[in-house]
Amino acid sequence: MAKIPKKVLTLAFIRRDDQILLGRKKRGFGEGKWNGFGGKVDLDETISDAAVREVREECGLLVTNLKKLGVIDFEFVGDPVILNVHVFSTVDFTGNVTESEEMSPQWYKVHEVPFEKMWKDDPHWFPYMLDNKKFNAYFLFEGHEKIISHWIKEVESLDE
Ligand SMILES: Nc1[nH]c(=O)nc2c1ncn2[C@H]1C[C@H](O)[C@@H](COP(=O)(O)OP(=O)(O)OP(=O)(O)O)O1
């Protein structure tokens, strides 16, 4: 059987008191949507190194103590590539939030996360992430706005 190609991506969230830092994506995949910060893992780096790098590039903060909370596979009808997204969270950071070419960052209260302007899967797994619960999930999309099927489960631990 042919091997399904997976593209490994990071997605990191920074918490401060009752707030979470989100960014509005200004270009590329998911343009216009609010999300955490992240992107592709380079060949010479670990997934968590990539997560730290992407946060710095996209919002200017240097994060430490990233905790991996979730791994989500996204499949799109008609596309053989699976997006394998590693979700991280931290409360530890230094620096100032700065807008980048890719992201326009803004702090949101965790109870005021703008799900209507985000990926459709986010309301399903944000509750786990916001509660610091570890989870695995899968979403099958038709286009970028419709989820055809999905599952999500809380897990004891996640592979690094
Ligand atoms: N369905 C989904 N729900 C979600 O919450 N985040 C998703 C998602 N699908 C992808 N992402 C995240 C993962 C990653 O952080 C980001 C996409 O990665 P990139 O920013 O690297 O993509 P781009 O194609 O814009 O990359 P470049 O053109 O190389 O900048 O979107």
TrEMBL record:
Q: What cofactor requirement does the entry state?
A: Mg(2+)
Keyword Metal-binding (UniProt): yes
Q: Which domain of life is it from?
A: Eukaryota
InterPro entries named in the record: 8ODP, NUDIX_hydrolase-like_dom_sf, NUDIX_hydrolase_CS, NUDIX_hydrolase_dom
Give the location in the cell: Nucleus
* Major enzyme class: hydrolase
The UniProt GO MF terms for this protein read: 8-oxo-7,8-dihydroguanosine triphosphate pyrophosphatase activity; dATP diphosphatase activity; metal ion binding
- Domain Nudix hydrolase positions: 5-134
One Pfam family it belongs to: NUDIX
Keyword Metal-binding on entry = yes
Q: Which UniProt keywords apply?
A: Hydrolase, Magnesium, Metal-binding, Nucleus
Catalytic reaction list = 2-oxo-dATP + H2O = 2-oxo-dAMP + diphosphate + H(+); O(6)-methyl-dGTP + H2O = O(6)-methyl-dGMP + diphosphate + H(+); 8-oxo-dATP + H2O = 8-oxo-dAMP + diphosphate + H(+); 8-oxo-dGTP + H2O = 8-oxo-dGMP + diphosphate + H(+)
Question: What EC designation does it have?
Answer: 3.6.1.56
Q: Which GO terms describe its cellular component?
A: cytoplasm; nucleus
Q: Might you name a Gene Ontology BP term for this protein?
A: DNA protection
* Chief subcellular location: nucleus
- Could you describe the subunit structure of this protein? Monomer.
Q: Which PANTHER family match?
A: 7,8-DIHYDRO-8-OXOGUANINE TRIPHOSPHATASE, OXIDIZED PURINE NUCLEOSIDE TRIPHOSPHATE HYDROLASE
UniProt lists the family membership as follows: Belongs to the Nudix hydrolase family.
- Reported function: Oxidized purine nucleoside triphosphate hydrolase which is a prominent sanitizer of the oxidized nucleotide pool. Catalyzes the hydrolysis of 2-oxo-dATP (2-hydroxy-dATP) into 2-oxo-dAMP. Also has a significant hydrolase activity toward 2-oxo-ATP, 8-oxo-dGTP and 8-oxo-dATP. Through the hydrolysis of oxidized purine nucleoside triphosphates, prevents their incorporation into DNA and the subsequent transversions A:T to C:G and G:C to T:A. Also catalyzes the hydrolysis of methylated purine nucleoside triphosphate preventing their integration into DNA.
Q: How is this protein named in the record?
A: Oxidized purine nucleoside triphosphate hydrolase
Species classification: Eukaryota, Metazoa, Ecdysozoa, Arthropoda, Crustacea
